[in-house]
Amino acid sequence: MKALQSYVPTTLLIRSQMLSRLRSLDPALRLSLAHRQVPIALAGLFSLGVLFLFLNRLVDLKLYVVETIGIGLAAGVIYLIAYYLLDASDDSPATLWLILFGAIVFRLTLFPLAPTLSDDIYRYRWDGRVQEASLNPYAVKPSDPLLAHLSDPQGPAIPGRDIPSLYPPLLELTYRFTYRYLSGPVAFKLPFLLADLLIVGMLAVWIRSTGGRNSTLALYAWNPLVVVELAASGHNDALATAAVFAASLLIIRGRGTLSTLLLAAGALFKVFPVVLFPFWLRRGGWPRSAWSWINLLAAAALAAVCAWPFRSACARITETLAYYESRYQHNNASLYALLAWFSGSTDIAAGIGVGIVAGLSLWVAVRRPDTMKAASLLFGAILLLTPNAFSWYFTWLVPFLCFFPNPAWLLLTVLQFLSYHVLIDYQASGAWHFQPFFLWLTYGPFFALALWRCLWPEMTAESSGRPAWQRASFG
User: Fewer Cβ atoms within 10 Å of its own Cβ: the N or the C terminal residue of the chain?
Assistant: First the structure.
């Protein structure tokens, strides 16, 4: 742990110095790199590819936590610099294909790894297994001795053994279908990998059709946190993110009904997209437009169809949710931590957070800003105010940062690798405890950079330095 504590500040200092030098050379650098985007992309592809290959060679990442964090941060340095240099150079058609090629190679490099940084996928598989045994995952729990025959004796302990499932119904149906055909822990990651690649594909098509920058695709496709959390660990968040991102692109195109159904699907995969529903309804003309009511009824019908197979456990959901909330790990050292400190109560802090997010959701519905900006604002607020903010949650935001790049948020996605320090003590003593040093090291640079941009906006050249397509409205 001491070695990691000394290593991380050094890495952050190097990153800060490199970015400062690049910024100071900005005019000359942009001129010299104007026609060199392909070599830049090749260098970034090779560098990131080597680092992800190193991760692949570690095999069991939880046994090499310091190395994993170091490689993740190093990949983050390369990622941020690669984006800066790609954005500083003139676009080349070949670069888009290189970025796509890199996205696929990076993910395929890590996909064969068994999920070791997180055991969540073993809970996904258990939920699928109990459904195949004609049981309701909302009514049973892994610790039940009568269900011992459904446990995997060769797998790790299933997370949340003493609690029934709380995953939304469409996700549970996905677990059942996946377990039926792809029951192994590595193969079980495939739906989430495909959803991740779907986001990459949607971004590429959008860029080609609107004349966007190649660097925009790299923001998501080469993000190290996205690659590790979705391809290596197989987190389910990719399904909800893909559904919401597709819904956002469709509503911009005026496809109200289909986009509403996809937004509903996103909320049935993971709850967080529900905050966008007021905005979606108001954008569709609700309550005056008849079509807005049709869209609302279609979303409700989809929810009912997905929930119907689990209807027998409806009465237990609130009890399970209350029990889960009582076991929050409170690992969010951002605005939630400040609220908890000022109020002296985590319950009050959580309640204030819910109120702020709800208020922002209504404000966005009334003001109706750009769709991508609305999603960025609401998802960012959730990540700062929720009691639990695990590293993979931050993948929700990355596709939307492609439209409104924010250096502070991009830096925070990279710094999330520091959260895996918790596995060091966990491997040694079984204690799951987030060290304050690493929590503040994760969020301190984020807030410092965000505050700097707020206090001295003229130095960030928010508007003048950006390509026109980034400054345009996205509906």
Answer: N
What is the separation of C-alpha 125 from the centre of its chain, rounded to a whole number of angstroms? 21
Alpha carbon distance 191, 198 (integer Å): 10
Rounded CA-CA distance 157/350 in Å is 29
How far apart (Å, rounded) are the C-alpha atoms in residues 234 and 121? Answer: 7
Residue 150 resides in a domain: yes
Beta strands per DSSP E along 93-168: none
pLDDT in tens, 170-196: 999 999 999 999 999 999 999 999 999
The pLDDT of residue 100 is above 90: yes
* CA–CA separation, 34 and 36 (whole Å): 6
Q: Name the residue range of residue 139's domain.
A: 120-185
Q: Could you give the number of structural domains in the chain? A: 1
How many residues does this entry show for the chain? 475
Per the domain annotation, does 152 fall within a domain? yes
User: CB–CB of 105/197 below 8 Å?
Assistant: no
Q: Dig out the tokens for 376 from the structure.
A: 């960025």
Asked, for residue 203, whether it belongs to a domain, the answer is no
Model pLDDT, residue 59: 93
Q: What's the CA gap between 442 and 435, in Å, rounded?
A: 11
DSSP, collapsed to helix, strand or coil, labels residue 465 as: coil
What are the pLDDT digits (tens) for 263-282? 999 999 999 999 999 999 99
Q: Tokens 């090749």 identify what position?
A: 42
**pTM of the model as a whole:** 0.90
What's the pLDDT band for 390 if we cut at 50, 70, 90?
A: very high
Burial class (CB in 10 A: 0-12, 13-18, 19+), 43: middle
> From CA 446, how far away is CA 368, in angstroms rounded?
27
- The Cα–Cα gap between 174 and 177 comes to 5
| Beta carbons of 62 and 427 less than 8 angstroms apart | yes
Residue 189: CB atoms within 10 A of its CB come to: 29
Whole-angstrom distance, CA of residue 52 vs CA of residue 75:
8
